[in-house]
Amino acid sequence: MGSKLYITEDELKQVAPDAIKATTTQYDTLFITLAERMSRWIDNHTGRMFYPFIDTRYYSVDKNRVHVEEFDDLWIDDLMEITSVSISENDGSTYTALATGDYIPMYSQDFNSEKSHTLLKVDRNGDLGSWPVGQRSVRVIGTFNFTDDRSNFFEDTLDEVEDNPLASGGTELTVNDVDGADLRGITPRIAPGNLLRMESEFVEVASTSATGNTAVIVRGVNGSTAAAHAQNIQIDKFMPPEPLKQACIIQAIKQFKRGQAGYGDAAAQMDLGRVLQMKSFDEGALVLLQAYKKVEN
How far is residue 106's CA from residue 119's CA, in Å, rounded to a whole number? Predict the structure, then answer.
């Protein structure tokens, strides 16, 4: 579950309107459920996913394309990082890997965007004349998800692997300062619900211990493979786009307050002398998500 969250239980606690202390645990299960529910609400509302997932995907090229230049363009799912692109001349029976100089990954028709790739264009300076026609004629392996900043999608936690080494089957990760500040000055730097990256492996944080500076982790999540990691390997943390996180927090807290109000349609603020209408979706959250809605090609 935590491998696909856009907010953590701790982030919700820090902004909860009744000032929940970090040591208060009675809402923990509810906050985890809210984080999961609101993360998936964002996926459904925007029509795309923002958590990274390593996958192999296949694309067919239709022989009935109208314009010749359309054979230069292959529209794909949101792709943050490319491992390989291969083509098939026999409807997916066998594949030949392309050189990176045979195609140009782009966001829409923008050669310079830092957003996830949505289009692979044939490079006219390469050896690929056009995308081959056929069923599953193109195979793409990589990390699929949407981000508006591919260079900073993962952020250094300022911590490292302190196990010597962390075995591929190890489920307890030792670090320097699990509840220390991260690059942004936010604590804790590693929290339950975080998605971490060590080399090419993704792990989910299930729980942490400040006393032992350890984190219980779920290995090889989101399509990655568990592997051994040497001492002092850098640990990175998945950073969803900030507007996404804010929308998730706004909607989760709103749902939390609706629950406290018995899921009524309105709540009264006696000190201000007004009644608040409890709409199902917060307008501010919807505005934050507007720029991330997927537009079909």
Answer: 5
Structural domain spans, the chain: 2-47+153-238, 53-144, 242-290
Mean pLDDT in consecutive groups of 10 residues from the start of the chain, 297 residues: 83 72 74 91 96 97 64 93 97 97 96 96 94 95 96 95 97 97 90 95 96 97 98 96 94 80 54 54 91 84
- Sequence-ordered alpha helix ranges (H) in the chain: 9-15, 28-46, 242-260, 283-290
292: which 2 tokens?
Answer: 């991330």
Backbone angles phi, psi at 283, to 5 degrees: -65, -40
Strands 154-160 and 103-106: unpaired
CB 87: neighbour CB atoms within 10 A? 20
Q: Write the burial class of residue 269 (CB in 10 Å: 0-12 exposed, 13-18 middle, 19+ buried).
A: exposed
Phi-psi region of 220 (alpha: psi -120 to 50; beta: other; left: phi over 0): left
